[in-house]
Structure formats: C-alpha cells, structure tokens
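Sat 14:20. Reprocessing the chain from the morning session after the first attempt stalled halfway. Input below, unchanged.
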Amino acid sequence: MSSRKDAIQKLLAQVKPFQPNYPSPPPLSFHTPSTSPPFPSTTPLSSPLNILILDSSYNPPTTAHLSLLQSSLSHLPQKPTQTLLTFSPANADKSFSPSHLPTRLTLISLLADTFSLQNPQTPTQTILLSKPYFKDKANELLLHYRQISRSQSAESIRLWFILGYDTLIRFFDPKYYKEIDMTREMEKFFEKGRIVCANRVVPSTSPSSPPQSVQQNASRNKIQEQEGILKQFMDSSDAASLIARFKDRIFFLPEWLDSEVAGVSSTLVRGLLKEYWHAKTEGTVEEVKELEGRLRELVPAGVVDFVLEEGLYKD
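Finished this time. Tokens:
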C-alpha cells in the first residue's frame, strides 16, 4: 500500500496542484480500481450519462461512505454510468494541509477498491477537484465529461451528488452565495445536477457509551430530530422558495436512515483510533484487540490496514 502512496505522490509532483502561483488544475483522476470496467468513452453514447458522485473529506473513509454509495447505486432513478469518489482540499468550512494530500488520496483509493470489488459492473473512479463549492465542482465535472465523452454539449450529462442532510442545509444556505446571484447559481446547478440526500446520526465516541439498544433508540430519535430540522429549514429558510422550486430534483434515501451504519462517522472513527493508539502504549493487550475489532467493524479492511500500518490519527 505504501507503493500506491508513492505513485500518488509522483502524480501530484508532476501536475503540481494546489501550489502557490499555479492556476487551479482541471479534475485529476488519481486512481481507477483494477476491478472497474472501463468508462464508455470510446464508442458513441446511446443513452445519457448519469454520474453518481460522493464528495467528502474521507477523514478517514468508513463503512458509512460505502453504505451511502451502495444505497444510492441501488435506488437511483436512473442507473449510473459511472460512480465517482471526489475530494477537494479547498473546503468551504475546513482547512486542509497540502502535505496530507498523498495520504488522504491513498485512503480514498482504497475505499474505491472496496466499492468496486462489491460492484464490479459499475465503472468507478477517484477524482481530485480544486473548487470548494458544489456549484463549481459541478462545472468542473461537466467540462471533464464533455472532454472524455467527446461530446460538444452537456445535454446528455446528469450529475447526482450524494449529500447528508447537514450538507444539504449548507448547500441552500445564503451565506455561501454572498456577492453572487444565488437564484441564478441554483438554476445553473440544477440544470444538470441532482441531489441524493440521506440523514446521518453521530453517536457518542466515549468508551463509556450506553448499551447498543439505548444507542439505537437515541439514533432513531436523532433521525426524527434531523428530519424535523430539515423540514423546518426547507419550509421557512431564506431559501425556502428556491428549495420548493427544485424539490423534484432532490432524491431522498429513507431506507438508509434505518441502517445501523447510518450512525457511523469519521469523527467516531478518529475518536476510536485515538483510544487505540493510547491503548497500544498504556493499555492491555485485550483493550487493543477490542478497539481494533471495533475499528474493523466501522472501517473497510483495506483502509484500516493502511491506517494502522502508517500510524495515522494518533493525535
């Protein structure tokens, strides 16, 4: 796995993305799983391109990311032509150190491998983007697909972005559209873009967490709370009229809400990793084994192997 990280480092060194005095680079494909069939770009396309996109920080990738991809793939109104795992270091709300980029991209590539192994009929790819906002990411990807599909127009391209409910709220928050025409930006996005939305529950990361049955009840209550917040936002926010206008272009995944994996988050995993590394130096062998077992339930095998091999998330 270290050889894969080395290959990604060499690729980044060649294109020099996200470095001072360099222009924003175009979308960069940094990994295609070996089990993925090729993207149908060399023959005339007889049907529209439906691109399923999970854009996340993947810090680190978890089984929840896999579940989101799988649920979306299974329930999307149109069968996806390709599934993308995208990442942008330029985040609207979070800072990111360029020195961490090779490691993060390696983690994402390992997640893509797991997804592709489970879905060998679906072309899968990982792409590095340069823009922080979804409206700009959509423009980047539209240009990308126009080029690789040899199509001069975007008429046949549909981009399906998978968002959690919290991200959906931020997507419609006017504060991210200051000094620009929000209505016009929404019109441009939804002309080719669609949203696949699922709620997310974040349980406690404490080692003294309540029993699982109690946590499950709390998770159901949290889901109901999130649904209420989302409904209130969609009905009464400053962007309510825009939300109503494009509501038919937002597809919800209600089945995913009842899944146990809906309570998994990168925050939870980072907390467990911190406990794991502490137990490695201060705890017992039994504690280390228990924590590693919990991590392997929450993180795909290839990802957790790389994390432990590299000693990641100790701080």
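The chain is about 50% helix and 10% strand.
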